[in-house]
Amino acid sequence: MKQILFKSIFVLCFLCTSLSAQISIDENLFQPAPGTVITYPNDIFMTADFFNSLLAGTGGSMNWDFSARGYDGGNIFISVDPASSPRNDSFPDGNLCMMSIVGSDSAWQYYNSTPSVYNYEGLCYHSGSSGESVQSFNNMTPQWTFPVNYNDQWTSHRHSSVYSTNSYSIMFDTSDFHANAYGTVQYNSNSFNCLRIVEDRRATTNTYDNNDSLISSFTLVTTIIYFIGESNTYYASATRTSAFGILSYNSQVASDFINVQTGIEPIANGTLPDDFSLSQNYPNPFNPSTSIQLSLPAKSDVRLTVYDILGREVSILVDKELSAGSYSVVWDGKDKTGTAVASGVYLYSLVTDKYSESRKMILLK
């Protein structure tokens, strides 16, 4: 569980930024309000060949195509008020906190996020099996300063400590960044202009017992590729990690990048709803498409997801902030890759910051 959450930190250690026509990230605009939900699906078939294709070449007019990839439900992060989080006093510069939960494990990740600087400050981790650990960074040089332009290069140095019940670890971390390419990032019919930034990271961790005796020492060598587009949009990242002579690969994308939400229509009835609601789809059974209505009494972060009967995510129909009102959403009977799904019973689930509900529907071909 801890490994899944730590891999997701690579994604949140970047940010949503503004990219101009001159391939310049003018400022950091990543400051989601408390309660904002952000999802990063994982590539379930990530390979060395695909990673190398994303890393190949430099310069402009490049295209990075994610269309053939397959994704799971992803890692979910919720922005919380740092003052309400555990150990916030350990991160005095952390004005942004993102919480994630996997099984019985929880993590609170702290960032210093301003228009000119973006730094990862550290982590408070609660494990259901091993208790609490806290990782804080110090003696840092900034990870990200703005603006960032095409072909910029910079180096970041970090020194962190992790304290748990029976041991503590010291990590020395150096990252070299290079904004070395620009072009388009693509997923099926989605195609967006973006800047590619490559981070080469080397982190050595020494672990000691409570008597200051060295228990272990190891070095991770990591390459992370970030793809960032216009309109404050993060699209994707890919990671290659070398540990103990073994290479592993991981990739995550923004949920909006792989889910085109074209079927959301407001329902104009002259009044605002009094309560949250999720209506039964119509028609039901259906073939090939069906309409789902939902009502919001106030502006809300909305996530409407389709699952199969085993609880596996099929498609994300809505994942955005919507104003108060009633809406109709169409599902065309296709999964996240645009492939028509088989006949059967499916679930659709509405989740907002104050309400959740699920219903069944039947696709009958």
Description:
With 365 residues, the chain is mainly β. It has two domains: 2-258, no CATH class; 264-363, Immunoglobulin-like. 6% of the residues lie in helices and 56% in strands. It has three helices and 25 strands. It has helices spanning 2-12, 48-55, 255-258; strands spanning 17-19, 24-28, 37-40, 59-65, 75-80, 96-102, 105-113, 117-127, 131-138, 144-145, 148-149, 153-163, 167-187, 190-209, 214-229, 233-243, 246-253, 264-267, 277-278, 290-296, 300-308, 313-322, 325-331, 344-351, 356-363. The strands form four sheets. Strands 3, 4, 5, 6, 7, 8, 9, 10, 12, 13, 14, 15, 16 and 17 form a 14-stranded mixed sheet that branches. A hairpin with a 4-residue loop joins strand 1 and strand 2. Mean pLDDT is 86; it is low at 1-7 and 14-21.
Q: Which parts are unreliable, with pLDDT below 50 for 5 consecutive residues or more? A: 1-7, 14-21
Shape category: globular
Helix/strand order, N-terminal first: HEEEHEEEEEEEEEEEEEEHEEEEEEEE
**N-to-C CA distance:** 39 Å
The percentage helix is under 10%
How is this fold's topology laid out?
Elements: H1 2-12, E1 17-19, E2 24-28, E3 37-40, H2 48-55, E4 59-65, E5 75-80, E6 96-102, E7 105-113, E8 117-127, E9 131-138, E10 144-145, E11 148-149, E12 153-163, E13 167-187, E14 190-209, E15 214-229, E16 233-243, E17 246-253, H3 255-258, E18 264-267, E19 277-278, E20 290-296, E21 300-308, E22 313-322, E23 325-331, E24 344-351, E25 356-363
Parallel strand pairs: 4-13
Antiparallel strand pairs: 1-2, 2-11, 3-5, 5-6, 6-7, 7-8, 8-9, 8-10, 9-12, 12-13, 13-14, 14-15, 15-16, 16-17, 18-23, 19-20, 20-23, 21-22, 21-24, 24-25
